[in-house]
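User: I'm curious whether this sequence folds into something compact or stays loose and floppy. Could you predict its structure so I can see for myself?
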Amino acid sequence: MSTIKELITLQKIDLQLQDIESLLGDLPKKVEALVNEEKELIDNVENARTRLKELDLELNKCDSSIEEIKVKIDKQKDQLFLVTNNKQYDALQLEIDHLKKEMDDLETKSLELSEEKENLEEETKSNEENLDSLSTDLIKRREKLDQQIMSVLSSDEHPLTQSTFERAKKILKLALVHKNESIVANQIDELNKILAEMRNKVPVLFISDNLTYVKLANKIDLGTFKSQKFRLSPGEYLIIGRRNGFQEVSKNLIISTDKTNNEVYIVCNQKQRI
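Assistant: Here's the prediction. I'll summarize afterward.
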């Protein structure tokens, strides 16, 4: 009954991890793309804000220069009424024309800067709105990932099968892409602990009759013995016993990290029917 319960637990954990793997199969690429897009938007917004400050300074500088030139032009015009010859008059008029040209250039520059500022403000506003929407999307995806991982980590029922263990390692590898995200950081630590437990081998006592050849299916040939201790990683194993002239026997062994008295009795004692 205990074995059936453990198998059901393993199946449940497998399914939960499959759900996580399915979610992560979509998340890494999408989240990575969203994170990159978010970073690009953040950079764009920050650069835009820096540029807007520069534009304000340049516009203020242009306005100040234009006002200074207007004052100079007014002074030069006043001087026109005080000159005593044509040469002085022409010189003052030339200076006034030069100042007017300089003022026209500054006014043109001011208009260009104002237009750039207006466009940049609109673009920044749009980027900030997109950033808010994107950040909300990321939060939802990370919360969903958090819930999926927690559904496995909150269970006290282990062990994991070897295939589940490999899947869990894959999940951890994918999750580590987002290790700096506060939502999954703690869950990554918990998953690491589970995987660390899975790496710790557990002693198992095998009891036989020194005649039955024992092996772990697709894994290790244990040979013949009366009793022998082996250290195995937590997980599910199929134990097979063979002996010439006798029926083959097999047993399922589930090893957990919290069970230290693992013991297996396997003997071929029923003769083959002729």
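Summary: The mean pLDDT is 77. The chain has two domains: 2-198, 201-265.
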